[in-house]
Amino acid sequence: MSKNRFSGMVLFGLVVALSLTMLPALSEARNIKVGIVDTYSGPPAVYGNDALNGFKLALEEINAKGVLGGKIEFTTRDEKFKVDVAMAMAKELVMRENVDVIVGTINSGASLAISEGVAKAEKVPFIVWTAKDEKITGELGHRYVFSTSENTAMGGKAGGVGLAKLPYKKYWIAGDDYAYGHAIADAAWRNLKALKPDVEKIGESWWKIGEPDLVPYFTAIKGAKPDAVIFCTGGASMTNALKALKSTGLAAEIPSWIHTAIDHAVLKPLGAEGPEGVMGTIQYLFYYPQTPENKAFVDAFQKAYGNPPGFPAFNAYITAHLIAEAFKKAGKIDKEKFIDAMEGLKVKSPVGGMVEMRACDHQAVYPMYFGKTKKLPEYDFVVATDIVTLQGNEVLPTCEEIQAKRKK
Amino acid sequence: MRKNGSNTKTILFLAALAVVLLFLPSVLTRFYTYILSLIFVTALLAMSLNMVVGHGGLFQFHHCVFYGVGAYAFALMITKAGLPMWISFIVAPFVSALTGLIIGWLCVRLTKLYFGMLQISLGSLIWAIIFRWYSLTHGDDGIHGIPMPDLIASTTSAYYFIFLFFVLCLVVMYLIFKSPFGMTLQAMRDNPDRCAAVGINVRRHQLTAIVLATFFAGIAGVLFAVLERTVFPDLLFWVLSLEVFIMCLLGGWFTFAGPAVGAAITVALRTFVGIYTEYWTLVLGVLLILLIFFLPEGVMGFIYSKMESSGQRDAAGPRGV
Amino acid sequence: MLSIDMAALGSQLFVGLSRSMILFIVCSGLSYVLGVLRVPNVAHGSLYMIGAFSAFSITKLVAGPAGFWLALILAPLIVAAVSFVAERALFCHLYEREHLMLLLFTFALSLILGDLVKIIWGAEYKSIMSPAAFDGSITVLGASIPKYNFFLLIVGPFVALALWLFANKTKIGKIARAAAVDREMVGAVGINVSWVFAFAFVLGCFLAGLGGALVAPTVSITLGMDHNLIIEAFLIVIIGGLGNLWGAMVGSLIFGLTQAFGVLFWPQFAIVFPYMAVVIVLLWRPKGLLKSVW
Fold it and tell me: Are C230 and B61 in contact (CB under 8 A)?
């Protein structure tokens, strides 16, 4: 071989090699980055941790097979339940970490701020997984925000439907004095009144969030002698409320309904001393339904984290699977294609059956459970019994209602 | 009092700093531009607080009320009243100053801790009103997506807009600091009785300082709303007021520029330490303790004493920039 | 407007009084430290929180009523130990410095203690139950009040009396009072002022821990419970008169009773009551209701 020919072949080889190294850079399989903003300090931290655990459990299954040739990785930021910190963290995740999806948080104000100021402004999909404000997918919803959390519209309707079956007429409404408390009160009352027009509201009490001493409020309510009470407490005050319900004897005398009262996170610390006869609604219970899927979910969670999953873990688990399936359906790591793929997507629910991500408002659809607390011998703590299941479509506002709200 | 040499040096240093800050957006990524804008807003807030705390010796424990009122006034005028952004921008700080006048007038009869506690109570009442008046303010849901004119909509243009007003306010604050009014205020901080004996109306002076400080706090609130396009009740919560107070102490509350440095350190810490750990309040607590023991005059105070001891500045006279 | 009968009114009165006593027990330590060291102890809320969490741990180790009573004794001691370490290692070196530095120190301490509680105990909600003897309500003069709240109603004045006897009738208590007013004089007489302050600080923190342990059965023990308390505690101590023990009692009564009756008549706006009470008191009596100790 002549020298020229040899150098020509070497040159040709180099060019081929170089082109080959460039090609993977263009279509290289990379990991999907998820940025999580949530509260890991203060009273809501227990929910932030639960959600993160549910997400991590789902990722173990998902990453075993991988998505689009890579894995799903995540990074967390603690907003400490402050809206300004949440905004700054969300911006950092999008502008500096370049995440593909933002996920979070339990703070409704922060969720709305991130939805408007980061998701919509930067065109990055944002999935809300614990905050319960119905505005998130309601009147303030848009293309870039999704919710896998149940919201006050759903909770209120579930409560209203459950209470309308009961004979009580004179109601007292009480709760934490913030947007969530009032929203759930409005939703519950609206639905109850629509189904049972002869109910009457004889009074209202509102206390500051985290109020440690609810005894004066409960004794005053007892004195007013309503037939039943609708309590609108958030997670932080719930254990307090349940304790005061028992110590003032209110639980024994007057029936009450509290959204998320049957959440295990608030019943567990009370142990056997939790109040009985309190009605509540929730979207996940680790002991009901006793399907094989739920049992498997609970066992895996219990083994990994030492305690049974709560509703944030349920929401987060679904979120993880939605993210994986949507990217798979989209075929590539593209935010707009991801959003299109999410609409109408169905994934398996940890308790069996499917969960749908509704296209018209980006809200996940799943059933709600209405039950009453009772002490059963097989558990160390109080659980929900007499459970009535309300299907997702029974409790969600219709697509027409949502469109009407968003147009206003 | 100050040698001409060190005066020119300071001006040159500041000019260089300004030029650097003007060029930064072209080299930094969007996130760092955003964080710098946030630092300017927070620094302005801290400097406005220091007008009454460091220079005036008043226990202004709930300064953020005026910050939040400015932000909300701005947001409400744009979203509810439909007023153009420029008009809202000008009017909102006056709303803060008016609130400052009313609360200040009620508090100024008291001294020290009592002044601070009454202010916390009155401020918390305002917080409760904004929190509860859902139909007007949307309570803790907040007001989001406040529309801004395209001129200042992008990260970089918002940066320049905020930087411009930050510098303007600083210049005005410095002029007040150096003016006879400012000098009298500091004298009243150190010895109110002697000032009264000389015939100065201490109460009126303090009230004027409060109104000025709250006006600047209102500007900071408006700039925050411009940057984040969102307002929420946390802006008026006592926890934030305490944080801003700490920023002043951290930076050096007897100096002019100290609070701005304190604000920069706090925002930077919160953002960058927060990326790595959820325990950054622990980090902040440890840092504060280190500060108390090793840098009791704050960061700027320390820097100034170092400069004094190495003979670069005139040791006599107040700690101006 | 709801129809109020005498029984309901009576119930609210007792509940208000028990709430006042709870507030007083928790604030007494804060007032004492303010009285002797002239510093508002911002870490008071965190120490109260540690008292509640420690009580929880103790009741988990020792079951039943024995665990509860043991917790009442041990938890305050644990808190006192923590405060002693903080005081001797760091705080005492600051006594010569200006008050703002001392305040800043207590604030930094509260930040550190808050995160330490999260590290040690975690984020889950915890709860203690009062001993079975306290279950249910009792009826006093026609009004019903939970038994445990009635217990606290009795304990409050005892704590007040014990603290008053200590501060005024014991040698060290009197020295502490003197040191608050004129520390140079006390030092000149040959007494180690630093140890006097140490003792006062640790006692105040002991009371914070006792407050946390006593109140724990009535609240949910969570992170952030230090924040819920601290503003109210400060407002009470201020309106009562700086450092004045009976002032703290009066402040607590005002807070507890306005809340209990406010809740009866105007329950939708309960969040403004404490602030309104303080505004009215401070506008009427700018230096607090009772004389300040210094």
Answer: no
Query: Which residues in C have their CB inside 8 Å of a CB on B?
Result: 40, 90, 93-94, 97, 100-101, 104-105, 107-112, 114-116, 118-119, 227, 231, 234-235, 238-239, 242, 269, 271-272, 275-276, 278-279, 282-283, 286-288
Positions in chain A short of pLDDT 50: 17-27
Distance of CA B214 to the CA centre of its chain: 9
Strand partners, A256: A229
pLDDT, residue B316, reads 44
Mean pLDDT, to the nearest integer, of C220-237?
A: 87
Q: DSSP states of B114-183 as a string?
A: HHHHHHHHHHHHHHHHHHH-HHHH-GGG-EE-----GGGTSHHHHHHHHHHHHHHHHHHHHHHHHSHHHH
A388: which strand partners? A370
Are C8 and A223 within 8 A, CB to CB?
Answer: yes
CB A77 within 8 A of CB A93: yes
Minimum distance, in Å, between the CA of residue C201 and any CA atom of chain B = 18
The CATH class for the domain spanning C6-284 reads mainly alpha
Tell me the one-letter amino acid at C160.
A
pLDDT category, C228, cuts 50, 70, 90? confident
Q: Is the pLDDT of residue B203 over 50?
A: yes
Question: What pLDDT, on a 0 to 100 scale, did the predictor assign at position A21?
Answer: 39
A306 at C interface, C-beta within 8 A? no
Report pLDDT digits (tens) over C6-55.
Answer: 777 888 888 889 889 989 998 999 999 988 888 889 999 999 999 999 99
Q: What pLDDT sits at residue A258?
A: 93
Which secondary-structure segment (H or E) carries A370?
A: strand A368-375
- Which pLDDT belongs to residue B28? 86
Closest CA to C38 of C46, C28, C47, C30: C30
Structural domain boundaries in chain C: 6-284
Spell out which residues of chain C touch residue A172, defining contact as CB-CB under 8 Å: none
Is B305 within 8 Å of B297 (Cβ atoms)? yes
**Tokens of residue A11, six digits:** 């040159």
Region class of A276: left (phi > 0), else alpha (psi between -120 and 50), else beta: beta
Cβ–Cβ contact A210 with C under 8 A: yes
Kind of pairing between the strands at A368-375 and A279-282? antiparallel
Amino acid code (one letter) for B165: F
Min CA distance, C269 vs chain A (Å)? 7
Task: Read off the pLDDT band of B300 (50, 70, 90).
Answer: confident
Q: Of chain C residues 116-145, which have a CB less than 8 A from chain A?
A: 118, 123-127, 129, 136-137, 144-145
pTM of the prediction?
A: 0.89
Instruction: Supply the pLDDT for residue B144.
Output: 93
**Tokens, residue C278:** 């303080």
Instruction: Provide the H-helix boundaries in chain B.
Output: 4-27, 30-52, 64-79, 85-107, 112-132, 134-137, 155-178, 180-190, 192-197, 202-228, 238-251, 258-276, 280-294, 298-309
User: Do the chains contact at B117 and C278, CB–CB below 8 Å?
Assistant: yes
Percent of all residues in chain B with a pLDDT value above 70, rounded to a whole number = 95
As a whole number, the mean pLDDT across chain B is 88
A264 touching chain C per CB within 8 A: no
pLDDT of residue B7: 75
